[in-house]
Amino acid sequence: MAGENGRPLGELRDSGLLWLINAAVFHPRGYALALHVDDGGDVTGWSLMGDGSEPWQYGDDMHERFAAAERTLREQR
């Protein structure tokens, strides 16, 4: 549940913002920010994955994830 002025942490995944953060900050450096999700779909925490030895590779859904992040950012205007 979100705080009074916040949004649920789980929205990072659906909004595309988790992908954008990873693509811009962590993936090029060989890391990824991962959310921990329980059986009910609630985010219970996060961790930093990877060893920094090589950049992460992107799957075929890169354009869809970028579009989701763009929609989320446009909605904030």
Distance between the termini: 24 Å
Tally of contiguous helical segments: 3
The oligomeric state is: single chain
Tell me the Rg in angstroms.
13 Å
- Give me the side-by-side strand order of the main sheet: 1-2
Give start-end ranges of low-pLDDT stretches: none
Number of strands: 2
Structural class given helices, strands, pairing? alpha+beta
Range of strand content: 15-25%
Net shape: globular
Order of helices and strands: HHEEH
Question: What tags apply to this protein structure?
Answer:
3 helices; two-stranded antiparallel sheet; 38% helix; alpha+beta; 2 strands; 77 residues; globular; 17% strand
Q: What is the structure about, briefly put?
A:
The chain is built from 3 helices and 2 strands. With 77 residues, it is of the alpha+beta class.
Can you lay out the helices and strands and say which pair or pack?
Layout: H1 11-15, H2 17-26, E1 32-37, E2 43-49, H3 62-75
Antiparallel strand pairs: 1-2
How would you describe this protein?
Strands 1-2 form a two-stranded antiparallel sheet. The chain has one domain (about 10-75). It has helices spanning about 10-15, 15-25, 60-75, and strands at about 30-35, 45-50. The protein has about 80 residues and is an alpha+beta fold. About 5% of the residues are buried.
